[in-house]
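Incident log entry.

Two folding requests arrived from the same account within the same minute. Monitoring flagged them as a possible duplicate submission, but the sequences differ. Recording both here for audit purposes.

Request one:
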Amino acid sequence: MDIVIFDLEQVLKFQKSCLEFIEFDFSVESIRKEDSIVHILPAKLSKTFKLLIPAKKLQISAFKQAQMMSILPLLNPKVLEEIKIEIPEISQHGGHDSLGMDQIMETEQWKNAKKLNCDHFALGANVKKIAHFSIARISFASVSVQNLDILRKALLNFPIFENSNISIKFFLEHHQLSILWGAPYFSGFFVGWFFKMSNGDVMKIDYKPGFFTKSSKFRIFENQN
């Protein structure tokens, strides 16, 4: 293992360009084995690795925050642009659809990334923490209307914002949206609102109540004038 880490460090040390993509997979089978490379490699890297990994995109299959935190801080936050968090395929039917995100959202890697794609329902997470992503897809266990409105206001002043797709498992205050945002328009299963952005563009928010699905859905995106 030490030889593998040394070789990787030497490759990155003399590599002139950044990695386009790096992937880690924490599967149920592998984490049961304490001597698995899934356990050993992150610990070894964090102790001995002298360089941050310069990768533009991180794709990781995990269902524990500790697994994410064993990898994410190893990446160079000045290079990382995109984070993709997947549910390990073998655990999708085992109830592992939620992930603690409070520590993850405090990392420099999270704060500097531009794109997010997360399959999990985020636990202990504040929806305001995704306001810096130009493109985001994420689910939350619950979100208050007040925090959703704070996100809207932040995105209205974010010039490179493109779109966000947010699913909310427990959204009990939906009746307050029209109080904060005014009367919506109706289109099929969606209700929606338009807001003018600080740069003159128009933001459109579509809301689909979760009456017949597992969660309510918000689609927030910018319409170019």
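Request two (distinct sequence, not a duplicate):
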Amino acid sequence: MAFTPPYDRFSDAEITVDLLDDLAARGPGGLIRVAYREADYAVTHSRHEDWRRPTVVVYGHGDLVSDLVHYRGDLEEIAAALTDHARDETTRWIGQNLHTCRLHKKLRQHLNTLGWYMDRRPRYKTGEDETRYVTDLLTWRNDRRFTLALRSARRRPEDLDVTVDLHYQDRHLTTWTETLTYDTPDPRFTRLLKDQARSAPDTRA
């Protein structure tokens, strides 16, 4: 049996207004992901995902919030533009996910269990020196005004360089950097996240 490229499998799939309505109802942490078996797209929430598995995100609640401003609230226009974009990019997104290292996926899952939910489609980049970069944008279950930018760089096969930026609304609070290996226990910065968020100003307002 001949291999069917992902583009061909998803060429008839659509991201509809109903999917966007469902995504909006899920709130922060809501996601639209690739549904492999059905060759379609489905709505989920970050908390229901096991990020160690090959979940491919095509759109997030945070992306929708931004697009509602850009498209002046026109969900039909957003759905049409997103469907065209997904048809062009699904193959690439699947490949990028397959090449995301296990250390980054393990970290995604650990943060998810701590209540830091993916809220936008991950961004991927490969540098001229073949370093692979991944950026995830997360929101906190306990207070959605807090967001986390998780950036990783895989320069060597045995470890992962991680930079984490914590924001409260539009204000940058702190940055942590850490190099993780497959033998690293829970990253140091994850133990500091909750205390840092609690000590941030204006959180009791």
